[in-house]
Design goal:
- The structure holds two protein chains of two kinds.
- Chain A is mainly α.
- Chain A folds into two domains: about 40 residues, no CATH class; about 220 residues, MetI-like fold.
- Helix content of chain A is about 70%, strand content about 0%.
- Chain A has a two-stranded antiparallel sheet with strand order 1-2.
- In chain A, strand 1 and strand 2 form a beta hairpin.
- Chain A is flat.
- In chain B, the strands form six sheets. Chain B has a six-stranded mixed β-sheet, sandwiched between helices. In chain B, strands 13-12-11-15-21-22 form a six-stranded antiparallel β-sheet.
- In chain B, helix 3 packs across helix 4 and helix 3 runs parallel beside helix 5.
- Chain B is elongated and about 75 Å long.
- Chain B starts with a strand and ends with a strand.
- The relative contact order of chain B is 0.12.
- The chains are: A mainly alpha, B alpha+beta.
């Protein structure tokens, strides 16, 4: 039988190609384009090779903000994941309080980022804010607009307040899906509550926790609005995280080339960490 | 090892608002002798699992008491009752190896490492798990996991009773047979009391020496498989056990004789009462074609290989009968008779004693 060559079906794919092109490919390639060129205005561009990448990778400023970013993300993961699990374990499994707890937990997630930033800014102001006044009232000298440690702890606290709920809700859903038989078997086997957590709950939560850690990693690694509104990256540069620094370079200094190169490196770091983490978790699963 | 007695056990789960209290267990009195192999048979929702959970202490009964060797255990915690339970879906500790799974209940009870090892190996040998002893438990098939569940009960030397809650639900059909005979063999080997909950009559009748049949929160009959077959104490037992189940026909009491389908049967209730409405129950195995019987219409015949199931109809009632292979089915004007030795009378669902009378 002769095959009839007919390639017209490709037209059916065009809408998808256009869509993907406009929402991902073209913007991304613009950035790639900027990252290898130099411009002196007038829309004139000159080839610059990997120069910008070299500059960013060797710049101390980039190292500092990357380090701050890693420290921040590490800190909030170390606090939010165990705290989220602990809160989820304490939540009731049935009864009228379930919906109350769930709504209370979901509430912070519904507040827009910039509102969270503004809220905490006012809340923590040392002279008029409730939190700031209270801490100072306790005799601790606290002013997040001037002290790096205070700025850091306020930012971390704000993120914990805003996002622990996500870990709680995911963990709670995971806990609810564990069949009763496991708990009954554990009682029959005489397991302590620590053993129940260690050998039943934690293993069964592994998948949701993987998702929770990934989401929290990505979100916090790209955090911008909240610290920007709260501290504006200060005092000095102490809370200038990667995305704040990036915006400063791209829009403040209008250095398109270095900013584009930095964006790509930033993107690759996120991708790489997620991939490594996910692969490690899943490989563990297969064994 | 202990004899377990349930005394006047009643249980109801908390009712939803505005609803009447529903008794999941109406009233149960039951003795489980030490070392017996029991099956607890009944349809879904009849209270089997509730009863098991009351024995194991996962539930406290609303009323009544649980006695282990005459000692009241109603309020005693699960761990101190020394019972083991195998659930419908296999429960294994995923992150542990098979060995660690089996050792887990012993470690929790503070047993020495040196004592645990031989015990675990012995049980693994019994359950044919020796080869996978150091593999992750999560990687085993459903029947392997179910063996681990069972093994965690068997390793403990002080277990009073092992309870199985429909343990073969998720097992492949060809492995069900293997696992069931393995259970029976284990029972003979270790001699622990075993209670096997199921809604499958084949499983119940092949595993147990004594079958406890439950229906709507009550124990309706306790007996050997033969007793359940020959003398169902309740119409439920009649039609639940047997394939096809017992024929049940309305029946009237006229002059101390049971009248059914327009003819007088040769039986009557022994202790006369005023009651006039009965049901007659006769198993398909004990209905036969006879020239002097009740005229019927033949609806259909299913050939099941070793025997045929004939469905006949008269007076608007369908009667099923089992006809042996090679036996003829009359083509014209069939008439049927009941084997009176195996024909029972039921009043309000419960069997009454009968005697033969001249029709």
């Amino acid at each position: 039988m002769n095959k009839i060559s007919n390639q017209r079906a490709w037209w059916l794919v065009v809408p998808v190609v256009v869509l993907v092109a406009f929402n991902a490919l073209i913007p991304l390639m613009t950035v790639v384009n900027y990252s290898v060129q130099e411009t002196f205005g007038n829309n004139l561009f000159f080839w610059h090779g990997v120069g910008w990448f070299e500059q960013v990778l060797t710049s101390e400023r980039f190292h500092a903000s990357l380090f701050r970013q890693l420290a921040f993300t590490g800190m909030i993961l170390i606090i939010e994941v165990p705290l989220g699990i602990a809160v989820a374990l304490c939540m009731p499994r049935k009864g009228p309080w379930v919906s109350v707890c769930l709504v209370l937990m979901a509430l912070p997630l519904l507040i827009p980022w910039n509102v969270v930033g503004a809220m905490w800014n006012i809340f923590a102001l040392p002279d008029i804010g409730l939190l700031g006044r209270m801490i100072n009232g306790l005799g601790i000298d606290y002013n997040f607009t001037q002290q790096p440690v205070a700025a850091w702890s306020t930012t971390v606290l704000m993120d914990v307040w805003h996002w622990t709920s996500l870990v709680v809700l995911l963990t709670y859903a995971g806990l609810c899906s564990i069949p009763d038989a496991y708990y009954q078997a554990a009682r029959i086997d005489g397991a302590s509550s620590w053993s129940v957590f260690r050998f039943i709950q934690l293993p069964k939560l592994k998948r949701v926790l993987t998702i929770a850690v990934l989401l929290r990693f990505m979100d916090s690694f790209m955090i911008y609005t909240e610290p920007f509104v709260l501290t504006g990256g200060g005092p000095g540069n102490t809370t200038t995280f990667l995305s704040i620094d990036l915006v400063k370079i791209a829009l403040g200094q209008f250095d398109l080339g270095p900013a584009a190169a930095m964006s790509l490196i930033y993107f690759l770091v996120v991708l790489l960490v997620c991939w490594v983490f996910y692969t490690a978790m899943m490989r563990n699963e297969e064994q | 090892m202990a004899r377990i007695e349930l005394k006047n056990i009643r249980h109801s789960y908390p009712a939803a608002k505005g609803e009447d209290q529903v008794w999941a267990l109406e009233e149960v009195n039951q003795v489980w002798e030490d070392g017996g192999a029991y099956a607890l048979l009944g349809p879904s929702g009849c209270g089997k699992t509730t009863l098991l959970n009351i024995i194991s202490g996962l539930l406290t009964p609303t009323e009544g008491s649980v006695l282990f060797d005459d000692k009241n255990m109603t309020q005693v915690a699960t761990i101190d009752r020394h019972i083991a339970q195998v659930f419908q879906f296999p429960v294994v500790y995923d992150t542990m190896t098979v060995y660690q799974n089996l050792a887990f209940p012993l470690r929790n009870r503070g047993m020495n490492h040196s004592d645990i090892e031989p015990r675990v190996k012995e049980i693994a040998e019994m359950l044919d798990l020796t080869e996978s002893l150091y593999n992750r438990a999560a990687g085993l098939t459903a029947d392997g996991k179910q063996k681990i569940s069972l093994g965690r009960g068997l390793v403990r030397p002080d277990v009073n009773v092992i309870m199985f809650d429909e343990p073969l639900t998720v097992i492949d059909p060809h492995l069900k047979w293997q696992l069931r005979s393995k259970l029976k063999q284990l029972h003979q080997q270790v001699g622990t009391t075993m209670i096997y909950v199921t809604h499958d009559q084949t499983e119940a009748l092949t595993f147990a020496e004594t079958v406890v049949v439950m229906y709507e929160g009550r124990v309706v009959q306790v007996g050997t498989p033969v007793e359940l077959f020959e003398e169902p104490k309740h119409t439920f037992v009649g039609h639940f056990i047997g394939s096809p189940g017992m024929n049940l026909l309305p029946c009237e009491n006229v002059d101390r004789k049971a009248h059914c389908l327009g003819s007088a049967l040769g039986i009557a209730e022994k202790n006369e009462t005023q009651s006039e409405q009965f049901q007659v129950g006769v198993r398909p195995e004990f209905v036969y074609f006879d020239e002097v019987g009740i005229p019927v219409n033949l609806n259909k015949v299913d050939d099941l290989g070793r025997y045929k199931v004939a469905e006949v109809e008269t007076h608007g009632h369908v009667i099923k009968m089992i006809v042996d292979e090679g036996e003829d089915i009359p083509g014209e004007n069939p008439r049927i008779c009941f084997d009176l030795d195996h024909t029972r009378l039921y009043r309000d669902g419960w069997m009454v004693e009968t005697e033969e009378v001249m029709p």
